């Protein structure tokens, strides 16, 4: 059974003072399997946070429906709120004047957790996220990484079965982000369902069971991270310097070569759009005695352009 | 619900006691008001009016805690980026904020002790309380009314950021209208009806009656009016906060990210 | 004349600060109603005490005070560069920091002067206090003098508050409330014990409000000028202390590393 079911979910923001409306979510369909980590990958403004807000009952959809563990987020708001935990990224979302422990106790109370249980759970969570030594210091003195870990603890204080993590590693250094992802993976092992939004492809690959690509409010695809990685690798690019003209003509004719242009370095840039094409192009270059060759993968934004842009490629 | 209430009270107590320079700032200012008022009366030789000077700072402090501290709680949560999370919690948002505003406002009662200390230490004056059975319920009722007013303030200042520019303006006009030091009877006739809808005037009269000789009249009714005015403020504040949350859920402007 | 240019630009910045807080409507409706109410509040105590003399004493004292209290906002305004993140930039600029500070905060002196004049004349009218027009006119420069000397204290207080910007509001208001209590605003300075009188003597407002009261009561010009002179000396003293403090604080900040790029 899907822990989260989303059917044609749409959210339109009305434009103010003559400005155009913005469709933040456009008929999104998505199921999140129970006990899995679902990634939601997209650039800034793609609709990731809007989706999390709707699912966490903070925002009403314009149309469509969504349910969490069988409860509709609009008509059964109270039930949904008892089942979910939200984890933000960044510095905000904590009471800076309270200690970590005091923050957790407060949130536990808001979720109806009895005091004794809240105390025990807070302590366990503090230890779990590695804040035991600083648990009684005010949050205003915490680093970004520490605050993020406290965010996670806060999201778990009510023992939520479904967690929404909204760009949780924003601004974290790589080591802290890696440790955080390890924590998130542990949660899956406990049978929790996690929806994680990110604009970091590597993060999506590292943690998620499945990844949904979203842009301009529309779901482009839902695939396993491996499939996504293969898409990215399919859209390789090869930069080569000093390529003879006749070789360029031959390369143009290779199936799967989508374009020839100039790299910033002045070398020729060869865009690849199909598996196997890169190997053929490299053969041609090496046979022609070209030695200055480098390959690279496109950025996430470039993958999106390939998927939805005017080159007309489809996956 | 009870857990949310007690948790909110506890957390707000912790936040307030941490921030002496901020939240409890009004308590630092109280002795100066007491000093000034008592000095004016003492210097004039009208010792029978010392009780008036003693009671005024309490009400001023309650009002200022409600206006400047409790009235900013919703905005503060917004600024911290916590508002969404509070709204998404099962506990009713208005209930949580009511508990927190009440906690903050209650600190204003310390103004009473501070006033008395200033009278004792600086002027060697002790004003006898002839009717403690009037004084204590009045202080409690006034604190409740102030917290109800605070909830209203917090809702208005959250809904209309532009209203905050008038925050400082809602002090002395209300101390005057509320007769916190000089009874309402000294105001022009056309102003007096306005005074009757401000809980300060009823509270101030009751507090002064608690130190005057003779039996104060109509105490239960007057206390009920104080409580009712506070409840009215709380009800309107509750409604506005509920509307605010629904509006923000519909229009999507809760987000700060 | 770099200092003058800096000052002029800083004055404009101060005006922008002021407009950020107040528009014409909010100043008139919100602010003026409050200051008139505050002065009336104290004047009404005189009515409660049953003394016309007390009413006049309280109205004059609190009108002047409320103008000076407004001027004290300059103390908080001085810390705004720290919050804006512009303080380090001012420190490293070749020109002195002082014209920038004085210029940015000067708007509050003007606001204070207008406030005091408004309070005095409007509230006097409310209580039916008759004021000799000539004396009322001469009171204006005395109000200006008192606000300026308060401004000099505000510069010092603001400089010190910069060490703990989070406490700027509390520090400024505590100074204001002290002036309200002991500087002859509501009760004669002589009412207080001698040590308090000495403190009052070196604070602004004390001599300024005394000069204004003497003037309105028709006292000899010599007495009025003597009090005014003392107020000017107090103001000059605080200005000197303020300027010294700014330099010291800057050097201290550079040595300790407390000047942050926000």
Distance between the termini of chain C: 30 Å
Largest sheet of chain B: none
Name the helix and strand elements of chain B from N-terminus to C-terminus, one letter apiece: HHHHHHHHHHHH
The counted number of beta strands of chain B is 0
The mean pLDDT of chain C is: 87
* Unreliably modeled segments of chain C: none
Our measurement of the CA-to-CA distance between the termini of chain B, rounded to an integer number of angstroms, reads 29 Å
Shape of chain C: globular
- As residue ranges, the low-confidence spans of chain B are none
What is the H/E string of chain C?
HHHHHHHHHHHH
Over the alpha carbons, how many angstroms does the gyration radius of chain C reach?
Answer: 19 Å
- Mean model confidence by pLDDT of chain B: 90
Number of continuous helical runs of chain B: 12
Strand content of chain C is under 5%
Number of helices of chain C: 12
Structural category of chain C is: mainly alpha
Largest sheet: number of strands, sense, barrel closure of chain C = none
Please give a structural write-up.
The complex is a heterotrimer of chains A (315), B (257) and C (262). Helix content of chain A is 36%, strand content 27%. In chain A, the strands form three sheets. Chain A has a six-stranded mixed sheet with strand order 6-7-8-3-9-10, sandwiched between helices. A four-stranded antiparallel sheet of chain A has the order 2-1-4-5, covered by helices on one side. Chain A has eleven helices and 14 strands. Mean pLDDT of chain A is 86; it is low at 310-315. In chain B, α1 (2-18) packs across α6. Chain C has twelve helices and no strands. Chain C has helices spanning 2-21, 24-48, 52-71, 73-78, 80-84, 87-92, 97-126, 133-161, 168-182, 194-201, 206-216, 221-256. In chain C, α2 (24-48) runs antiparallel to α3 and α2 (24-48) crosses α7 (97-126). Classes of the chains: A alpha/beta (315), B mainly alpha (257), C mainly alpha (262). Chains in contact: A-B, B-C.
